[in-house]
């Protein structure tokens, strides 16, 4: 029996070798190292280009989100004025739960801009000014995003 088993295993190995030789003879082969490196380089170039383009859109999306957030808070400040005949002393008053109300007007997280900096709020004459430092996070620079209710009228 040992002889039969060995010849069975041996014939299986021979069949595999013959099949491998036949596939190689028909032109079937694997990729070379250079081909793999070229494919990886192309994938890297495409990923870099896509990444660069996407980050530009993320920056503009933050600016647009900040403008919408400032407009939303400005609307709440106007509603506060109509209900209380004066603007709040600070934005924190909009994030406090008032008596008789289920929840605060705004969440504390809404009082920060998309760059995680506090919004700048000042009462000016009979109106208010509401600003974000913008992408550079510095107050008073050219990229500040502001809502000035006097300009809106």
3D architecture notes:
- The protein is mainly α and 153 residues long.
- The chain is built from 3 helices and 3 strands; from the N terminus they run ααβββα.
- A hairpin with a 2-residue loop joins strand 1 (120-124) and strand 2 (127-132).
- 10% of the residues are buried.
Radius of gyration: 34 Å
List the uncertain runs: 1-7
- How would a crystallographer describe the biggest sheet? 3 strands, antiparallel
Percent range of helical residues: 40-55%
Order of helices and strands: HHEEEH
> Beta fraction of the residues?
5-15%
Count every beta strand, where a strand is a DSSP E run of 2 or more residues: 3
List the defining traits of the structure above.
3-stranded antiparallel β-sheet; single chain; 3 helices; mainly alpha; 153 residues
Which helices and strands, and how do they pair?
Layout: H1 2-25, H2 33-84, E1 120-124, E2 127-132, E3 145-148, H3 149-152
Antiparallel strand pairs: 1-2, 2-3
């Amino acid at each position: 029996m040992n002889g039969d088993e060995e010849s069975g295993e041996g014939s299986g190995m021979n069949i595999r070798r013959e099949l491998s030789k036949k596939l190689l003879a028909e032109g079937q082969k694997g990729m070379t190292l250079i081909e793999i490196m070229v494919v990886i380089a192309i994938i890297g170039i495409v990923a870099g280009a896509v990444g660069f383009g996407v980050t530009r859109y993320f920056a503009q999306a933050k600016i647009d989100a900040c403008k919408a957030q400032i407009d939303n808070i400005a609307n709440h400040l106007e509603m506060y004025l109509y209900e209380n005949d004066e603007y709040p002393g600070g934005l924190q008053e909009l994030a406090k739960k008032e008596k008789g109300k289920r929840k605060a007007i705004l969440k504390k997280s809404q009082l920060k801009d998309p760059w995680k900096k506090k919004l700048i709020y000042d009462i000016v004459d009979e109106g208010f000014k509401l600003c974000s430092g913008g992408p550079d996070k510095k107050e008073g620079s050219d990229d500040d995003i502001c809502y000035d209710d006097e300009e809106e009228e």
